[in-house]
Amino acid sequence: MSTLTLEQAADQLAELGHATRLGIYRELVKAGTTGMPVADIQNSLAVPGSTLSHHISRLVRVGLVRQVREGRVLRCFAQYDQLNTLLGFLRDECCVDQRC
């Protein structure tokens, strides 16, 4: 069973419901466990720096992304445990009302 509340799941889904944030998250998921520098995300999606920062901070706020400073580089990581928890929340009660 998922440990997310309905409100937490709604917050995460709302943040992923924006095209730019979904694009950022998909880039980070593709990058895997090594993460991706913010500059690379910016180059890949052609999003202005201030706009990108805003969108990343929203994903960080709901726990889907983590940022780590490595010297002058700010690297972002998809939080796969949170992604799996969110997916679990969506499928936890799949077909529970169906009579087999």
From TrEMBL:
<dbReference type="InterPro" id="IPR036390">
    <property type="entry name" value="WH_DNA-bd_sf"/>
</dbReference>
<dbReference type="InterPro" id="IPR036388">
    <property type="entry name" value="WH-like_DNA-bd_sf"/>
</dbReference>
<keyword id="KW-0238">DNA-binding</keyword>
<dbReference type="InterPro" id="IPR051011">
    <property type="entry name" value="Metal_resp_trans_reg"/>
</dbReference>
<dbReference type="InterPro" id="IPR011991">
    <property type="entry name" value="ArsR-like_HTH"/>
</dbReference>
<keyword id="KW-0805">Transcription regulation</keyword>
<dbReference type="InterPro" id="IPR001845">
    <property type="entry name" value="HTH_ArsR_DNA-bd_dom"/>
</dbReference>
<feature type="domain" description="HTH arsR-type">
    <location>
        <begin position="1"/>
        <end position="98"/>
    </location>
</feature>
<protein>
    <submittedName>
        <fullName>ArsR/SmtB family transcription factor</fullName>
    </submittedName>
</protein>
<dbReference type="Pfam" id="PF12840">
    <property type="entry name" value="HTH_20"/>
</dbReference>
<keyword id="KW-0804">Transcription</keyword>
